[in-house]
Write a structure and sequence with these properties.
Blueprint (H helix, E strand, L loop, with lengths): L2 E8 L12 H7 L11 H24 L4 E7 L13 E4 L3 E3 L22 E3 L2 H12 L6 E3 L11 H10 L6 E6 L9 H17 L5 E7 L15 H12 L3 H9 L35 H10 L6 E8 L4 E8 L3
Parallel strand pairs: 1-8, 2-7, 2-8, 3-6
Antiparallel strand pairs: 1-10, 3-7, 4-5, 9-10
Helix pairs in contact: 3-5, 5-7, 5-8, 6-7, 7-8
Length: about 325
């Protein structure tokens, strides 16, 4: 059967790719809650360095464990899907997928970290992808699948691309698993946990000697661009406490039990907008913080195993909790 070599967890938001000298400018022009700190360039540079050190640690761990392929849980932010049709889960089963041909922020935008050129084609893994698709279907899930890219100019989900750029040499095959973690009503924490367990069972029953790594790309707490945005570090640290001891179900229960405080404008999804459906979330934090459910799904793959927390970086420019972790005891 295939061998699971480990699970890997990382954030993928804008502050993971934006040079730190631009963070303060971003902080000052965003509608962030008044009590969120405004940090200077030195503090931002230190936090950016920690963020990229987190990626380095994970990249070296993926190489050390000799993964043949990565399965990446992330969200689609209308790169492939839109409000005409938005599945809860979708698996890309094609041979190749590409990065967007559009440069974010315009032609003069600067970037930090590792980045492939626009339109770069990454390798998929149709055999494993199909095994996962049919494997989770046998276990009560009915995900959508993509044999081709629905919107080639948009590229595949940016969270998947971020994993490919930061954790690989750009040639390692990847199976993208896209979850609706942004547009209400999103999948819940407990459903993400159940999905992760189904994926683990599908990996275990796949014949052959394939060495598989599973990655969660996204989170943690963030509500980018929303009025009154803030950073709930207490919520994130409880999530990481559960992850550290391998309590994936506890992560799901913690997530789903969260009640959005009255008057929290940063999580107001009640009015339809370009990136907001106007429909309610099914419990737990809303908007970008729901990407934590990608972590829950990956944690379920190595449930019961201790996980190493590499770092948690409280970035107030967004604000967002950038975090990095891995489990190499599958």
């Amino acid at each position: 059967m295939a061998t699971l070599v480990g699970t890997f967890f990382h954030s993928h938001g804008g502050s993971t790719s934006m040079p730190p000298d631009l963070w303060r400018e971003q902080r000052l022009r965003r509608p962030i809650r008044d009590d969120v700190p405004i940090e200077d360039d030195e503090a931002n540079a230190e936090k950016a360095a920690r963020t990229h050190e987190g990626f380095r640690v994970l990249r070296e761990k993926v190489a050390e464990l000799e993964a043949d392929v990565l399965v990446v849980f992330s969200d689609d932010q209308q790169e492939c899907f839109d409000f005409n049709n938005f599945p809860g889960f979708a698996i890309f089963v094609g041979e190749r997928f590409t990065k967007s041909t559009r440069r974010r922020g315009g032609p003069d935008a600067r970037q930090a970290g590792r980045h492939a050129e626009l339109g770069f084609a990454f390798n998929g893994h149709p055999e494993l992808a199909t095994a996962l698709l049919t494997g989770v279907m046998k276990r009560g899930f009915d995900p959508a699948f993509c044999m081709d890219m629905p919107k080639p100019d948009r590229g595949l989900a940016s969270g998947v691309i971020r994993t490919a750029e930061e954790l690989t040499d750009f040639s390692l095959p990847i199976v993208p698993v896209m979850m609706n973690l942004y547009f209400a009503p999103q999948v819940t924490g407990i459903r993400s946990y159940q999905f992760g367990r189904a994926v683990r069972e599908a990996i275990d029953e796949m014949p052959g000697g394939l060495r598989v790594g599973v990655v969660a790309s996204g989170g943690l707490w963030h509500t980018p661009g929303m009025p009154g945005a803030w950073l709930n570090k207490e919520f994130d640290h409880r999530t990481l406490e559960c992850l550290k001891v391998g309590d994936a179900r506890g992560m799901a229960e913690h997530f789903d039990s969260y009640v959005i405080p009255a008057g929290d404008t940063s999580q107001d999804t009640g009015r339809r907008a370009r990136n907001v459906t106007g429909m309610p979330s099914l419990g737990g934090p809303a908007l970008g913080t729901r990407e934590t459910c990608a972590w829950i799904a990956a944690a379920a793959v190595t449930e019961g195993r201790p996980t190493t927390i590499v770092d948690y970086v409280d970035v107030y420019a967004s604000p967002v909790g950038n975090a990095f972790a891995y489990c190499d005891q599958p």
